[in-house]
Amino acid sequence: MRYEAKQINPIIGLDYPDPDVIRVGDTYYLISTTMHFMPGAEILRSYDLVNWEHASYVYDSLDHTPGQTLTGRDNIYGQGMWAASLRWHKGNFYVCFVANDTGKTYLYTAPSVEGPWKKQLIQGFYHDCSLLFDDDDRIYLAYGNRDIRLIQLKEDLSGPKENGLNRIAVSDRGNPYLGYEGTHFYKINGKYYLFLIHSLRERWMRVEACFVSDSLEGEFRGGDVLNDDRGRTGDGVAQGGIVDTPQGDWYAVLFQDYGAVGRIPILLPVTWKGEMPVFGSEGKVPDEFKAAAARPEYVYAPLTADDDFMGGYDAVCCRDGRRTVDAAYDSFGFRSCWQFNHEPDLSLIERDRRNGRVIVTTGKLCESVLQARNMLTQRMKFPRCSAEITVDGSRLKEGDYAGLCTLSGGYGFAALTKRGGRLWIVMRSRDGKDGSPDPQGSHPAKEKEQEAVLIERSVARFRAEADFAEGKDEIQFFYESGDGFRPVGTAHKLYFRLDHFTGCRFGLFVYAGLETGGSASFEDFRIKE
Q1: How many other CB atoms are found less than 10 A from the CB of residue 231?
Q2: What pLDDT is recorded for position 382?
């Protein structure tokens, strides 16, 4: 085991909010909220808590609802899967979470983190739930908002146990901002611990709280244990799991708001003073500290990556139970760094691996890019990043759009479009400052075209450059003009808002405005930090 003191945070620089973390042997696993993106419930792997790589997706799809499949004008933006609980117990992995569009609580189990994962439901809806397997094999669930409840589950985890434990453990009623939620439930050295997020009552500020009890029926005592924004005014570090190393050291993996790029994981050491944890250094996140590396020479696969689209395989239709697959191509046969915006329609996607192309055909009419099916996305990275893609629009139909977007409620995109039988390069955007969600999932009245350029060819290469420095959050689009890249449109302001509740992503899209059946091909994707 090697210990090194170094500047660590943020550990990933990508949108991985609501983390839960466990250790199995010398390996750490982290699960994060994936909302509407499919496949979902991504699990990461690490041997030092600082560097992470993709390990698995838990599911390809949930319930195939119209919202989850982007059928018509339905969508699940700002909903879907979030705040999962990840556990390992007696040789099996357990993942438990709610989906806010279906109002259900899901439980997935597998003997290996790679799957296959078995799906079942837990009767009821348990916001930000956390599983606890007690020493006597009884199983409990902690959950809630403002009032944090504890319930006992049946032995098969199908629902609450009749006449079992059912009580309020702690309450933060009357908080004008955010009451206790984001529950993480543990038994450590014979005592029961609840780790929670809430806001200061006098102003908006995420803080981490901890309560401890000698028994599940007893009083939970405690309070705030971390109140630190690390110099990002008001953006507190909170909500996540704690985990011990094989040597007995403890760490917490929490998240912090970083504007439009999303909510990013933060690592900090945890020590103990009596029965209570001490987060960081006197309740603050230290700038530099020691982290233990069990495999210091291990080379991690990147969480975002270029793609020549020559690898992978043709995926079959979505499955309720996932098979064991190559972790490098765990996204419907695409590289694991890709997720689709919603559940894809694979019948409209063609893989030309010999020539390194992905061809997507339109299957429905759309009023905006937010309704486009089969959009491939990758996370954007703090503090700066860029992406490029080549788009062939020779098979577009009148009114189609195909290109590169920065996916959020206040999106922007550069694309090829066909108008009057001719191809144009356009930059279009929607102001996302107010963050008001449209219940029908479209914002046609608010989308503006910033520039249109007539071209005489059917292939275009687009670039998007993002700057997420504090207070900036801007994107600028470019297109290859023959003598280098030329800006198209104006710099566009990006925001993090609750209408999507996720960090902004790069997206490859095509959608039909007038007639379905057109298509576009995408090749040679490049992403840079």
Answers
A1: 9
A2: 96
Question: What is the 3-state composition of the chain as percent helix, strand, coil, each rounded to the nearest 5?
Answer: 0, 50, 50
CB-based burial label for 402 (10 Å; 0-12, 13-18, 19+): buried
Instruction: Transcribe 170-199 into DSSP letters.
Output: EE-TT-SS--SEEEEEEEETTEEEEEEEEE
Amino acid (1-letter code) at residue 404: L
pLDDT at 296: 87
C-beta of residue 364 within 8 angstroms of C-beta of residue 512 = yes
> What's at 70, amino acid-wise?
L
Bridge partners for 15 per DSSP: none
Task: Give residue 240's identity as a one-letter amino acid code.
Answer: G
The predicted-structure confidence for 317-354, as pLDDT tens digits, reads as follows: 444 445 456 789 999 999 999 999 999 999 999 999 99
Q: In Å, what is the CA distance from 474 to each residue of 259, 423, 487?
A: 11, 27, 14
Distance CA 185, CA 210 (A): 10
User: CA 90, 93, 96 angle in degrees (round to 5)?
Assistant: 125
Select from 117, 42, 140, 20 the least CA-distant residue to 379. 42
DSSP 8-class letter at 261: G
What does the pLDDT average to over 424-444? Answer: 68
| pTM greater than 0.90 (yes/no) | yes
Q: Please report the DSSP string for 287-348 in residue order.
A: SEEEEEESSTT--PPPSS--B-S-SS----S--SSPPP--GGGTBTTB-TT-EESSS--GGG
Nearest of 223, 133, 229, 239 to residue 181 by alpha carbon: 239
| Rounded distance between C-alpha atoms, residue 215 and residue 455, angstroms | 71
Q: Using the 8-state DSSP alphabet, how is residue 521 labeled?
A: E
Side-chain half-sphere exposure of 396, counting CA atoms within 13 A: 34
**Residue with more model confidence, 333 or 529:** 333
How far apart (Å, rounded) are the C-alpha atoms in residues 295 and 49? 11
* Strand order, beta sheet including 349-352: 349-352, 357-361, 519-528, 384-392, 459-467, 474-480, 485-493
- In 3D space, the residue among 150, 269, 303, 298 whose CA is nearest the CA of residue 213 turns out to be 150
Residue listed under structure tokens 């556990």: 87
Closest by alpha carbon to 173, among 150, 142, 149?
149
- Of 343, 347, 340, 351, the closest CA to residue 314 belongs to 351
Quick one: tokens of 40?
């979902």
